[in-house]
Amino acid sequence: MNGFCPELVWEERVNRNDGSSFEVVRLWALRLFVMTRKELLQLGRDVPLLLFLLYSFSLSVYISGAGIAMQLSNASLVVHDGDHSESSRELIHRFREPYFRFDGEVQNSKEGMARLDQGTAMVLLDIPPRFHESILGREPVAVQLQVDTTNAPQGLSAAAYAARIVGGFSSDLTQSRLGVATGDDMQMPVVNSAHRVWFNQDQDETWFQSISHILRMITLFGFLLPAAALVREKEHGTVEQLLVSPVTPLQIMLSKVLAMTLVILAATALAMVTVLKPVFGVPIKGSVSLFFLVTMLYSFTIAGLGLFAATVTKNQAQVGMLALLVISPMLLLSGITTPFEAMPPWVQSLMALSPLRYYIDVTYGVLLKGVGLELLWDSILTMALLGGVLFGLGLRRFRRQFE
Amino acid sequence: MNVRRIAAVATKEWKETVRDRLFLLMAFLLPAVWMAVFGYGLVLDVEHVPFAVLDRDQSSLSRDYLHRFMESRYFDYRGSVHDERDIDRLLGDTAIRMAMVVPDRFEERLLAGRPVTVQTLLDGTFPLHADTLKGYVIAVNRAFTQELLAGFLGRTRGLSPEEARRFAEPVSLETRYLYNQEVRSTWSMVPALIMFSLMVASPLLTALGVVREKETGSIYNIYSATVSKAEFLIGKLVPYFVISTINVVVLWSLAVWLFRVPFKGSFTVFFMASVLFVLCATGIGLIISLLVRTQMAALIITIIVAMVPTILFSGLLVPVSSLSPGAQVQAHLFPAMYYTDVVRGSFLKGLDLKAMWTDLAALAGFAVALRLVAYGLFTKRPKT
Predict the structure, then answer these.
(1) What is the pLDDT of residue A15?
(2) What is residue B276's predicted lDDT score, i.e. its pLDDT?
């Protein structure tokens, strides 16, 4: 062993010296370093896992960034046009991409309903006969829309866009009837909205999706890597060997956290350099070093949670189950997949315990909004507190189990 | 193939599982807990959006206008500001997601029959959110405008209120929501959550099965035993298949009794599809178990492979037809999408086998293909 690890030879020499407090600190740090190196070596030899880690932080970020759009896009539309007139064509023409994709005409409503049943269409627009005549005759007329709401939010969104389109069509008619020109001179009381979208003017969803994918990956790896590493030692019995060696429980736990945090930081940097900046052009507005500092803090926090899970379980199968129990609510309810404000109050208070909740605010704050510590200090502080408490609890349980 | 040998492997595996109390408990508890937590907690509606206003006009009409936002359940009023710089700060700190700026002379211009423009500042970090908000604001503005216009036409052209209203809205839209008339997000989420729970929990049950024996060395007993490859793999799967099938029934009952989601289709078809899907899900775990050497790798890869595509590409949140072509290909290569179709079809649409046989066939195809891959990967004579 000594031949394998030159540091240990040196360590023995220090031991004999019975050195000053400075020497004690050095020795402590050295042992931590040796242990961290051991973790990294062990991880480095697990080739399938490493390859998967690389995939998760590169190609997989690209796929979910480029592939997912939660905004209504290309909702499949079929039309039953009972009028086939100038007006009906004009209205149908307004249902267009990127929101709707015209997927053909159907001969009757029944055929349209069959398409909705099969799920090959999401929206059926039904224009009544005499649509054009009614408009010319200045009679009010209604068009019908059938929306598949098996996916409620998407269905609602499609209905809202359709209402916007028909509303626009309708008010254009009113305006042309009043015979006034559009523009500021228009003699009609109308409230227009001018939207300014901040932090992401074009509402480029790839930014949001690719960043949130990285957050998901950091959370999963940050929890599982240290947790599995610790349980494995328990399962194989090597943890007893470690405990009779001069390293302390704190060093054992800390070395795992350090090694895995390093791995995660490197992977995050990889994702930023290979995908976020060159492929999606995410404008990194804030300070990159602040982002990495916070990511380090977050990895530490989530590793604390993972190590705590490792102390309450006996084998890797158990820790896997426990990870799913804890992580999946975090991933789905902390606000990366769905807006946080809409959650019921009990979920919001439960998620106050989720470090991811704070990390999300900080990440988007730094990367997209370009704000700094002056606004984000409270989130960062809460996250640090959570991390400290979790790590402390894990350490206490770990000590009690083995001493 | 010898049924007794399969039974022997299955019994051994079953005993190992049952003796690990915590694992067994979680195998049953996990899907049910998810169903309850996500069924009640995973709300996708954009509601209670915190917003602030900057009212430069301070007239009765501008207050009336802003009041419509404050009273809406979609918005959550967080106060007025007097300076645009305050808006910057509040948006940056995520204290609000939206701000409305009403220009001065708002009332004066509108009463004079002239258009005004209201500024809406939106937080664009969550694009779906920003987009939905825009839609809400436009809808409120349209309703407000139509009332103003009707009043204006009544005053200037002497139309009766009814005539003025018809004039202001010549074409209207009647929307019908199908399959889920009240558009409850619970109804669309809960059936899909059956898919999610099975897809994420089942592979993990099998994932450690083979690799654990590799890591502890007990796999050599199998190598030297008379049990054949197929017998071993089938025996390994049986206990976990049983657990997952029980979970199917539990999840279905929760959806129907606890969440009161209507089940309109045929239970036989649903159950058949579920069994096929469980075979797929456990098959994925088994294959990962055969590919890697350490339990740690099996654990991490399984969780990520099961969880990420299930959240993103299964139709749980985003319909597959709306994905980009590349992501659609990925969705079709993963069994979860077909099962989501069957679950939503059976619960909400009331479809029969005729409408869904392609999905069932795809699931059956996956189940068989995954078995064949596992059979090909497993060898009793490993190169050291």
Answers:
(1) 53
(2) 95
Where do the domains of chain A lie, and which CATH numbers do they carry? 46-66+204-402 (no CATH), 75-178 (3.40.1710.10)
Range list for CATH 3.40.1710.10 in chain B: 49-168
Chain B residues with CB inside 8 Å of A216's CB? 308
For domain B49-168, give the CATH superfamily.
abc type-2 transporter like domain (3.40.1710.10)
**Mean pLDDT of chain B, nearest integer:** 86
Per-residue pLDDT, averaged over A365-378, amounts to 82
Mean pLDDT (whole number) for B66-83: 89
B 37-56: CB under 8 A from A: 37-38, 40-50
Tell which phi-psi region holds residue B107, choosing left (phi > 0), alpha (psi between -120 and 50) or beta.
alpha
pLDDT at residue B215 tops 80: yes
More confident residue, A120 or B143: B143
B303 touches A224 (CB < 8 A): yes
What pTM, to 2 d.p., does this model score? 0.80
CA atoms within 13 A on the CB side of B242: 12
Which residue in B has a C-alpha nearest to residue A221's C-alpha?
B300
- Cis status, amide bond into A98, omega within 30 of 0: yes
**DSSP code for A272:** I
Q: Do A318 and B149 touch (CB under 8 A)?
A: no
Q: Which of A317, A338, A347 sits opposite B208 (nearest CB)?
A: A317
pLDDT band at A403 (very low <50, low <70, confident <90, very high): low
Instruction: Give the pLDDT band (50/70/90) at residue A214.
Output: very high
Nearest Cα neighbor of B270 from B212, B382, B371, B348 is: B348
B contacts of A325 (beta carbons < 8 Å): 26, 29-30, 33
Which of A338, A346, A362 should be substituted to probe chain B, the one whose Cβ sees the most B Cβ atoms within 10 Å?
A338
Q: Mean pLDDT over residues A56-73, rounded?
A: 79
Closest by alpha carbon to A166, among A94, A238, A221? A94
**Alpha-carbon distance A359 to nearest alpha carbon in chain B (angstroms):** 13
